[in-house]
């Protein structure tokens, strides 16, 4: 899916595809948070996965193309890597807590307030 997202970004513009992926991920959080059955949760997660696949490779490509070589680009890549690591760690821990407390819809509905 990441290769697909990178290719789409190359064809239609990285910034445009990044924004579309971010919007799709956010909009897919609504049915995920309000999911009343397993099919609705699975469908919402599939849409979130597609949104993430459009966002991730284009975010990295935007950093690589918008920052000049050397220290500025290296610093931007370091921040991207650190925030990705923090997001993965906190997401897994918080997702477990939310799932344990509110069931399968807990992690998806936690994204809604940030939208």
Q: How are the SSEs placed, and which strands pair?
A:
Layout: H1 2-12, H2 14-33, H3 38-66, H4 71-102, H5 106-109
Strand segment tally: 0
Q: Note the main sheet.
A: none
- In whole angstroms, the N-to-C terminal distance is 23 Å
Report the order of strands and helices: HHHHH
Whole-angstrom Rg: 16 Å
Mean pLDDT: 87
Total helical segments: 5
Number of domains: 1
| Uncertain spans | none
What helical percentage do the residues reach? Answer: over 70%
- What's the overall geometry? flat
Structural class: mainly alpha
Strand content: under 5%
Overview features:
flat, 5 helices, mainly alpha, 0% strand
Describe this structure in words.
This protein has helices spanning 2-12, 14-33, 38-66, 71-102, 106-109. Helix 1 crosses helix 2 (14-33), helix 2 (14-33) runs antiparallel to helix 3 and helix 3 packs antiparallel against helix 4 (71-102). It has one domain (2-114). The two termini are 23 Å apart. With 115 residues, the protein is an all-alpha fold. Helices cover 83% and strands 0% of the residues. The model has no long low-confidence stretch (mean pLDDT 87). The protein contains 5 helices and no strands. The protein is flat.
């Amino acid at each position: 899916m990441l290769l697909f997202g990178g290719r789409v970004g190359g064809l239609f513009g990285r910034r445009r595809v990044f924004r579309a992926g971010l919007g799709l991920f956010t909009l897919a959080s609504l049915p995920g948070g309000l999911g009343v059955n397993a099919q609705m949760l699975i469908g919402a997660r599939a849409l979130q996965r597609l949104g993430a696949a459009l966002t991730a490779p284009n975010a990295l490509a935007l950093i690589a193309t918008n920052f000049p070589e050397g220290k500025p680009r290296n610093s931007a890549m370091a921040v991207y890597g650190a925030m990705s690591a923090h997001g993965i760690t906190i997401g897994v821990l918080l997702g477990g807590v939310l799932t344990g407390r509110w069931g399968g819809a807990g992690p998806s509905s936690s994204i809604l307030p940030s939208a």
